[in-house]
Structure formats: C-alpha cells, structure tokens
Amino acid sequence: MTDQAPTPYAGPERVLSGVQPTGDLHLGNYLGALVKFSRLQHEIPTFIFVADMHAITAWQEPAKLKQQVREIAAAYLATGLDPKVATIFAQSAVPEHAELAWVFNCVARLGWLDRMTQFKDKAGKHKERESVGLYTYPVLQAADILAYKATKVPVGDDQKQHLELTRDIAQKFNNDFSAPGFFPLPEPLTQGPGARVMSLRDGTAKMSKSDPSDNSRINLTDDADAIAQKVRKARTDADPLPETVAGLEGRAEAKNLVAIYAALSGKPEADVLTEYAGQGFGAFKPRLADLAVSVMGPIGGEMRRLLADPGEIDRVLTDGAVRARELAAPTVAEVKKLVGFWAG
Ligand code: AQP
C-alpha cells in the first residue's frame, strides 16, 4: 500500500452484501446481516447475493448446492428483501466476480492475506490441507463488492478485517493503474445490536453455521418447540440479572442472552435489565423464548412456503442476475482496459 491520500470516489452510494449457502441460517446471520439488508434497500440501491462461489472454498455436495442457494434466497425474501426493490442473485451467475477477483489476486499482497484471522480460525493447525480458495476468499469478497462499486457493506463484526482488505485493494488498484477515485473505499456497516451474536453453548464463541452442536444456534427454520428448547438449554450462570450493563462484564453467556433479547425486541440492553434486574434465568429464559418464537417463527414459515414452490425463487434469482450483470459488466470492462489486457 502507498501512503498517498486517495482521491475520493464521486459515484453513487450502493449497498452490497451476501451470505454463503453453507448450512442453515441462524440468529447471528439474521441480526448481523439480514435485518440490515431489508432496512437498507429502501434507503440506497441494494445488491444482495448468495455466495455459492465462496461456499466451495470448503467441500459442498454438488447435488445439494443449488437447493442450498434457494434456501438462502428464501431467507432473504422471508426476512423482507423485496426483489422489485433490491437486486437478489447468485454469485456464480455473474462471471464478472471471478474475472475481477483474478485481477485483485494480482493487486493484493501475500502479507495482507497472511494477517486474515478468519483464515487462521477456519484452517486451524492444518492450513496446508485447506483449499487455496479459502486463503484468497477475502480477495473474491473484494471483487464481489467492487464489481458494483458498492460503498456500504452491511455485515457482522467478524467481517470487519475483510472489509479493510477490500479498501486496501481498491486503493492500491486506483494508485497502480493511475485511476484516482475509480473504486470507492467501501465502509462496513456493523453497527447496531446483534453485530456479534455468540453461541448458546459458549458465550466466547461466535454463533456459527459450522458449529457441530445444533444447540449452539437458533436456526431460521427451527420451529417453536426447537427454539424454546434451545433457549432453555442455553448455558448460563447461577446469578440473577444485574441492574446495569456493566454488571454483565465477565458473564459472557448472560451478556449474550441479554444482547439477543435487546436485539430481537428493539430495546436497549439497559432497558431489558431494568425490566429483569434481580430475576434469575428461570424467569428470563421463557420470556426470551417467547420473543424469539414470535420473531423467528413467521420467517421459518414463509421460508417453507417459498421453498415448496422454488419456481418463484428461481425467477427472482434469474432476473436479479441480469440486473446485476448490467452493472458489473461495464466496470469489469473498464478494469480490463486499465490493466491493458489484450481482450480489454
Ligand atoms: N454470530 C454472528 N453474529 C452476527 N453476525 C454474524 N454473521 C455470521 N455469524 C454471525 C454475519 O452473517 C453474514 C453471513 O455470513 P456467512 O454465511 O457469509 O459467513 P460466516 O460469517 O462465516 O457465517 P457463519 O455462520 O459463521 O458460517 P460458517 O460457520 O460457515 O463460517 C455475514 O455478514 C456475517 O458477518
């Protein structure tokens, strides 16, 4: 990266984000990402994709992948994304993502990728066995965003570092190819309750699709009984709820459940504690379970309805891909010219 101050991007604001079709969506994905998508679509042109190319950085059963894509699209629609307002599509239907990712692979530096904590977390001790795609995942993510010159990226807290890498790639591309302000330096939108929902079994670990314990998360497709049971089984401590948010320090599980209640009810955590201070989890958990069922139950129902007739989802994705390409193709064509490709 150079120290040169970037020339500001002067184009329109756009929102872009996506979710991998790698398993059941959970409360963390919902609060950290999906809720924000449906709100933002009414404020800024919004592009939301299903990240099937990212998904295959870990093995996915080919016969199931298309259906997994439909499930994420169903979740988008069920949580309020309107295909007449937002552009909803599958990543693999827009080849410009992969084309731009290759150019960015040649812009990004190995040292930058070596710092990515998500790769270290996912690869664990055996990184030599992981796919090269998992390592360069954040570079494809930069291409996803910048193919649309997106300026705002609603994501959970865990994606902040990848967004910094996207900004570094955008800035280096603009400098290297003498194209000041060509790409924007996109901002992550991580604020708000639910930016980091933790596991119900371990308050220090992120709620995650790939956690082997299904009891660690509430899935969007869980029915009322499953939701209530998972909340009842959630790990807690024996102390009553404190009067202030500061009183939750050092109580990771209690803090997480209060944060979930606050996010689902739209109330500040302080107000939740005012209501429940002095009460134990025996009283708090059933109220949290009722709240979770009232918010998540209808979403699961709508997903099941949509998935029963995938024709509607497929039409949304097909139409979305056409609209997405209309925007991405000219940008990638300009990139090829700037790079000096024979085919540019
Ligand atoms: N626990 C979480 N709290 C808040 N936001 C979260 N997100 C994920 N987990 C939480 C946000 O959900 C969006 C989609 O995530 P993804 O599926 O693309 O990838 P991920 O971050 O890797 O999600 P998972 O559930 O942890 O999946 P696995 O287990 O497959 O890795 C992103 O905006 C993410 O920040």
Report what the structure shows.
The protein has 344 residues and is mainly α. The chain folds into two domains: 15-196 and 309-339, 3-Layer(aba) Sandwich (Rossmann fold), CATH 3.40.50.620; 214-305, Tyrosyl-Transfer RNA Synthetase, CATH 1.10.240.10. The chain has 13 helices and five strands. It has helices at residues 27-40, 52-55, 62-78, 96-105, 110-114, 117-123, 132-146, 160-176, 224-233, 252-265, 269-276, 281-308, 310-339, and strands at 15-19, 46-50, 87-90, 152-154, 187-189. It has a three-stranded parallel beta sheet with strand order 1-2-3. A two-stranded parallel ribbon has the order 4-5. Helix 1 links the parallel strand 1 (15-19) and strand 2. Helix 9 runs antiparallel to helix 12 (281-308). It starts with 14 loop residues before the first strand and ends in a 5-residue tail after the last helix. The model has no long low-confidence stretch (mean pLDDT 95). Adenosine-5'-tetraphosphate (AQP) binds next to helix 1. The site of adenosine-5'-tetraphosphate has 22 residues, from helix 1.
Question: What descriptors fit this protein?
Answer:
binds adenosine-5'-tetraphosphate; 344 residues; 2 domains; globular; Rossmann fold; two-stranded parallel sheet; 3-stranded parallel sheet; Tyrosyl-Transfer RNA Synthetase; mainly alpha
